[in-house]
């Protein structure tokens, strides 16, 4: 837990916070008893630990202590509420809550979200009510946001985190919550960066929990969220749609779910990067470390029809088109293995027989009508022989024109000399 209350002489005292523990306050040095801020269960303070499993300062339950049934920090009650509103995504196994993860991002938004009619959405009197995120989120994202906010109230106590696990589709064994959600410690994000840089891509979507430290802008004046600076890399959230990132301001806590990757620019540090495409990928809220109150969780507005049409056009333009090759022709007929017969040349065609010349004297006899008597043919006199024609004198042809020599391509220039024809040049 991130806060507790002093308990002296059977009287509930003021509220103290986990950030004061490392400074060794008076109530710690005097060993003043502490109780849960929402019930009378005994708690103890724990300083920041370093080493293989670093952990920040927090309050945790004393030995053999459990929260009261009405306490909002009672994990048993919270697990029941999450499982009730998850549409089967979260199931209870003993004292653990298992969250089923899909194989890819497309399966997260497949189930329509259902609003919880009993959720107030304002965080309740202590800011820990299990409220539905608006606009409505898919059951997986809504359950993950509730878990992250509940763990934030407990200061990500390892004993409380161990009660939440995730299970991949088709696998019976569940793994720790840290396999899905990376944060808030920089070591958690560094573990994800090292895993992605080594080429070991997760088989399911992952989440990064953190706090927005800076709002930057890229070359196209679009907002870029900077969460933290790891050891040799920077955590950033980008998007082609400014409306998805503009609601998030500095100091906002965010749970970003999606396909994270490592991008190395030409200049600057490598990035552990997420490109947000849908509104449900970014759930955010505020948290006051002084009062311990947090705002109701929310997410950016969904994309408009124009934004979705623009995204489809960009996707279609970036998709490589198949090359237009030659259409496949009919397959050749298989050749027979039998030997072919010899080809015999065709006989030469005989020249056509010219028709007999017609008799210039005899004329074809007319076919008489059947009723008319035949008319005897009268022989015609032979024509007189014409005198032979004398050939006309041939007209003499004009003499051929002399050949014209080709013109030179360039006029030769006379060499310049020092003496002129009529004396020395001046």
Biggest β-sheet strands, sense, barrel = 5 strands, antiparallel
Helix and strand sequence: EEHEEEHEEHHEEEHEEEEEEEEHEE
How many strands?
A: 20
The helix-and-strand class reads alpha+beta
Principal-axes shape call: elongated
User: N-to-C terminal Cα separation, in Å?
Assistant: 114 Å
Strand order of the largest sheet: 2-1-3-4-5
Q: How many helical elements?
A: 6
Percent of residues in beta strands = 15-25%
Determine the fraction of residues in helical runs and give it as a percent range: 10-25%
Oligomer: single chain
Unreliable residue runs: 114-128, 360-376
Please tell me how large the radius of gyration is: 50 Å
Average pLDDT over all residues = 76
Structure description:
A hairpin with a 2-residue loop joins strand 6 (90-93) and strand 7. 14% of the residues lie in helices and 20% in strands. Strands 2-1-3-4-5 form a five-stranded antiparallel beta sheet, with no helix packed on it. The chain has a five-stranded mixed beta sheet with strand order 12-13-14-17-16, with helices on one face. The protein is α+β, with helices and mostly antiparallel strands and 426 residues long. Mean pLDDT is 76; it is low at 114-128 and 360-376. The chain is built from six helices and 20 strands. The longest helix is centred in the middle third of the chain and has 15 residues, at 139-153. It starts with a strand and ends with a strand. It is elongated and about 155 Å long.
